[in-house]
Write a structure and sequence with these properties.
heme binding; Cyt_P450; Cyt_P450_sf; about 10% strand; 2 domains; monooxygenase activity; single chain; two-stranded antiparallel ribbon; mainly alpha; iron ion binding
Length: about 140
């Protein structure tokens, strides 16, 4: 009797998870890209060599266009820009829009340059790093 209950609960949870992954609508703010179970897709990408990833990205570009969103799991996605002009526009001309980092406030108080978000704190830390630590007279010491 107890084994039937466990079996029914397991089947219900498995079907609910399958429904969530297969029928969940993609985020309309993200660019199009391959769909599937995020963790399994990430493992599939990690197993490829550099040449295989390049060929896979070329085939994805033909299917989805020059900007691709690849789900990594949870609320995280990898955005890949496969066009030189679009990459230049995003990273150089509109670089301040994409310059920020994910918020890691529960982990750290963001008091170093690698984890600080783009803003006044980051600019102060960068200024101190360049003019106090990386100045030529310091580097010669």
């Amino acid at each position: 009797m107890e084994s039937w209950f466990v079996l029914i609960v397991t089947a219900f949870l498995a079907s609910a998870m399958l429904k969530a992954f297969l029928f969940l609508k993609p985020n309309p703010k993200l660019p199009p890209g391959p769909r599937g179970v995020p963790l399994i897709c990430s493992i599939k990408w990690l197993r490829k060599s550099l040449l295989e990833i390049e060929a896979a990205l070329i085939s994805l570009r033909k299917k989805f266009g020059p900007i691709i969103g690849i789900p990594l799991g949870g609320s995280r996605s990898l955005i890949v820009i496969l066009d030189y002009n679009l990459a230049h526009q995003a990273l150089v001309r509109k670089g301040t829009i994409f310059a920020d980092r994910p918020n890691m406030s529960p982990v750290t108080r963001q008091l170093n340059i690698t984890l600080a978000g783009y803003g006044p704190i980051w600019r102060t830390l960068r200024h101190n790093l360049i003019f106090q630590v990386l100045r030529p007279s310091r580097l010669k010491e």
